[in-house]
Amino acid sequence: MRLLKKNSDFKIKLAAGLAYFLLNLIGRLVRISYLGKEHPEKLGAENKRYILTLWHGRMFIPIFVQRKKGIVAMVSQHADGEFIARAVEKMGYKTVRGSSTRGGMQALREMVKLIKGGVNGAMMVDGPKGPRGEFKIGTLVLAQLSGASLIPMTYACSRAKVFDSWDKFVLAKPFSKVVVAYGEPVEVPREMGEAELTKLKTEMEAKMDTLVKQAEAAVRQTR
Question: What are the pLDDT digits (tens) for 115-129?
């Protein structure tokens, strides 16, 4: 058992190191432009907290551009979560472990405490295992309890490897043109009830899908 655990730890460490290497390498080899960057900058200038919301399959370049800002990200306790947590921590993120299917309540409380303490957050809102493109309502609750605004975030690129995974993970290829896009901030009032949150969940899905289309259109215009 000890040998199996040692081998597992080695594989996780190796995967985390590879992910960190690819993030840094590709992030520096692509040409990045921005849409809506004024939205997080405005909230930052006003000393207001926000939570970046991302689709799982569109997190690669956003992780790179938001590095070293002390952002706290919720990472699942599932098998792939450990190497992701180690990789993003190397990029300067704080991590809280939990998801909608495991350890969620404790992770939610930790995230609320950290955001109220002055840091911004990031959530892969359709993780850890989908369904793809479904905005999990827990992120709305996190915004309610922490008082932070939600800012949709995504990216598109001129050349990519799209994996045949549940999230259709988009990996930008070196030297491609990349557009990182931020949506307008969304407030989630504390008094919102279940019906209103369900409606907002649907609206957030539409906002994030529209943002992807805007980023893709902007990439085509820069070719």
Answer: 999 999 999 999 777
